[in-house]
Structure formats: structure tokens, C-alpha cells
């Protein structure tokens, strides 16, 4: 994915976490954003962020398509 491609995360429950992971030799959390139901985050991969972890129920759109995280059991 090109660095200037945006991705969209829409929370479908309160307390969805969007966690940014560092680019480079070590992979660690550097930022956590908490979204409540209906809140949307629009973000990019950057020089600092190479991966994103989403925890909770959400719809995620990227250049590769749209996906929904699994419901918690
Ligand atoms: N300062 C971070 C950066 O430029 C902000 C950021 C970009 C971010 N994309 C993200 C944080 C995705 C969390 C998730 O890399």
C-alpha cells in the first residue's frame, strides 16, 4: 500500500482501539486511539506507522477492500 493511501475505521461499538505500530527494526505500539460507536477515523500509513491493529467491532476500509471485524463471543 502506498504511504498516501488513506484507510477508514468506523467503530460499531464503544471503546474500539486503533493502535499504531512503528515502522523499522522494532515493531511496537506508539499510539492508541479510542473510538466510540459511530466515530470514524481516517488515517494513513506514514514514515512512523507501518501497521495498525484494531481491537473491537468496526468496519475497516482500505484500498484492498472493506472488512468487518468479528463480533466478540
Ligand atoms: N504520528 C503518527 C504518524 O505520523 C500518527 C498516525 C498515522 C497514526 N497513522 C496512524 C496513529 C494510524 C495511529 C494509527 O505515524
TrEMBL record:
Boundaries of every Tryptophan RNA-binding attenuator protein domain copy: 3-70
Subunit structure: Oligomer of 11 identical subunits arranged in doughnut-like structure.
Protein name in UniProt: Transcription attenuation protein MtrB
GO function terms (MF aspect): RNA binding
Domain of life of the native organism: Bacteria
Organism: Natribacillus halophilus
Gene Ontology biological-process entries: DNA-templated transcription termination; regulation of DNA-templated transcription
The UniProt record lists the keyword Cell wall biogenesis/degradation: no
Keyword entries, A-Z: RNA-binding, Transcription, Transcription regulation
InterPro entries per record: MtrB, Trp_RNA-bd_attenuator-like_dom, Trp_RNA-bd_attenuator_dom
Family that this chain belongs to: Belongs to the MtrB family.
A Pfam entry, by short name: TrpBP
Amino acid at each position: 500500500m502506498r504511504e498516501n493511501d488513506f484507510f477508514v475505521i468506523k467503530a460499531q461499538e464503544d471503546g474500539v482501539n486503533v493502535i499504531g505500530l512503528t515502522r523499522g527494526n522494532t515493531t511496537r505500539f506508539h499510539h492508541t486511539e479510542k473510538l466510540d460507536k459511530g466515530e470514524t477515523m481516517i488515517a494513513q500509513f506514514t514514515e512512523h506507522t507501518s501497521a495498525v491493529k484494531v481491537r473491537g467491532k468496526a468496519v475497516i476500509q482500505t484500498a484492498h477492500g472493506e472488512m468487518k471485524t468479528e463480533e466478540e463471543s
